[in-house]
Each structure stands twice: as C-alpha cells, then as structure tokens.
Amino acid sequence: MIVGDEHGLQQLVKAYAKLPHEHGNHLPLLCLENVPRELVSRYGIVDIDEEHSKGNLKKIQGLVEKPDPKEAPSTLGIVGKYIIPKKTFAVLPTVEGSHGGEIRLIDALINMLDTTHVYGIEAVGKRIDTGTPEGYKEAVKLLG
After folding, report:
1. Domain at 2-143: CATH architecture
2. pLDDT at residue 58 is higher than 80
3. Mapped to the 3 state alphabet, what secondary structure does the chain carry?
C-alpha cells in the first residue's frame, strides 16, 4: 500500500497515460520504490535506461529477482503494483520456471524485454508492506 497525496494505483494510471502507445502497443508498467541496498535481496530489482527515463518514469532495460546486494543493478525494487498488458499473460506459459517450476511474472517480463519496452514509476509517498504483520497492523490503523 502506498500512502500519500495519490495512492500507488493512481500514480500508475497517470504514468500509464503518458507512455508511448503507438499502434496499440500497450506496455507493462511497474511500481518501484528505492529500497536500502541491504534489502535488495527481498525484491525484484530493475536496471534503468537513464537516457530514456524522465523524472520518476523509468525505462527498464533489465530485471533481476532478489539479487545479491553487491550485484544489484540499482536499488529500485518492484513493489507489487503493476499495469500488465494482455500479451504479458500470453508469455507466461512459455517461460520455464527456473525456481522449482514456479512461473513468475518477472520471468515473463525479462523474456519480453527484447521485443517490448517496459517502464516503471518510482512511486511517491510512504509504502506500507501489508504482507507483514507489522505492516498490516499499520495499514489498518491508517485506514481505520
């Protein structure tokens, strides 16, 4: 959950409207947060194409799932909010599950990088990890 003037989904929708959609080519957009380097091994981390990024809208040139902090291409982590075009789901069955047969969205996105532009928006506001008991409790208090 992202708390601020606009929540995470509002930020994604606004950013998505600014992406190039030539010829109906809908593009994946990921919600990103700058995380401490020592915590990057908990996240999917993006490698940014700085030349084609502007402000908090980032063009992604690579992705890696839960990297070693020394090898992470950045500290921008994927934080569980996405706008994913239908074509992404068509790729999922073709991706080999490299982790015990698990099919992961990040693997499909990595597979698509050769043919599709992928973007991320560095969200503004405070992110609360509702997947932890502490974060869930904090979210309930805020929404309460």
Report:
1. Alpha-Beta Complex (3.90)
2. yes
3. CEECCCCHHHHHHHHHHHCCCHHHCCCCEEEEEECCHHHHHHCEEEEEEEEEEECCEEEEEEEEECCCCCCCCCCEEEEEEEECCHHHHHHHHHCCCCECCECCHHHHHHHHCCCCCEEEEECCCEECCCCCHHHHHHHHHHHC
